Amino acid sequence: MFTPRAIGYVSSPYKTTSEIPKGLNTRHDAEGVLRILRDFELGLTDIEGFSHLFVIWEFDRSPDFALLGSPPFEERPHGVFATRSPRRPNPIGLTVVELLRRQNADLYVKGVDMLDGTPILDIKPYMSSVPMEKLRRGWLAEAEARKALEER
Amino acid sequence: MFTPRAIGYVSSPYKTTSEIPKGLNTRHDAEGVLRILRDFELGLTDIEGFSHLFVIWEFDRSPDFALLGSPPFEERPHGVFATRSPRRPNPIGLTVVELLRRQNADLYVKGVDMLDGTPILDIKPYMSSVPMEKLRRGWLAEAEARKALEER
């Protein structure tokens, strides 16, 4: 299989995992910069036309994987592939960010949930969405409903 | 950096890249199976509650990367990070599929655009969408508009 390499690094306000907002209904509004290495700058050509990007990155400070785990504010364990847990067999993260502006090889974005210094593996344009009314969201929807009941 | 490992393999109707539908307005309706290795089956717990999944996989039959390239039916070259080109610095693919049903460690899905036998790196639940009215889609929207004009 291939050997991963960083194409750049994330500048993020989060220095430790405890600072990253977690749990139900968390909104990720934090701004950050995807600092792409000069060697790859040409690969950003025309990226500024897209409002949203997929960022694929490495969980570089995550412990070994666990196939079952409990998300924050959820007592029940779920399979790692049904959660966004950092403890994955391949420590790969995926975040959708809004592209605010590009300055040379720096992409200023909104919506970061990575730690500062996180290695970036790939960036892809966000081309289409699944309509919200077509989504079923399993344990997440159930947990949101329970929380709404508790807060009534 | 980490060493990638396959958590499973895609069963797809596509044996060669020429069979994969490409170009503007292509719809990926093909059905396939994500055959997860037994060692990782526990990680699928509760995944059947989600209607859609992100599949992260390896372009295992792709040549070396090219920072600029022309997508199918588009004359102008774009940066690799503004396209879904397989020729990426890290040969990582991302596909959104609809989960039809699960049978043990096999996920029957709709929307595959990978080759048969493609190694799967990760699966994540699709939890939310960017509303279509908030998306700007750069060169892709321009190419679609040109095509619509040509077809009038």
Beta-strand content estimate of chain A: 25-35%
Low-pLDDT residue spans of chain A: none
The N- and C-terminal alpha carbons of chain A lie at a distance of 51 Å
How many beta-strand runs of chain A? 8
Determine the most extensive contact between two protein chains: A-B, 63 and 63 residues
Summarize the structure.
With 152 residues, chain A is mostly beta strands.
Would you write up a description of this structure?
- The structure is a homodimer of 152-residue chains.
- Chain A has 152 residues and is mainly beta.
- Chain A has a single domain (8-150), classed as YaeB-like (Elongation Factor Tu (Ef-tu), domain 3), CATH 2.40.30.
- In chain A, 9% of the residues lie in helices and 30% in strands.
- The first copy, chain A, is built from 1 helix and 8 strands, in the order ββββββββα.
- Chain A has a 6-stranded antiparallel beta barrel with strand order 1-2-7-6-3-8. In chain A, strands 4-5 form a two-stranded antiparallel sheet.
- In chain A, strand 4 and strand 5 (78-79) form a beta hairpin.
- The mean pLDDT of chain A is 94.
- Chains A and B meet through strand 3, strand 5, strand 6, strand 8 and helix 1 of A and strand 3, strand 5, strand 6, strand 8 and helix 1 of B.
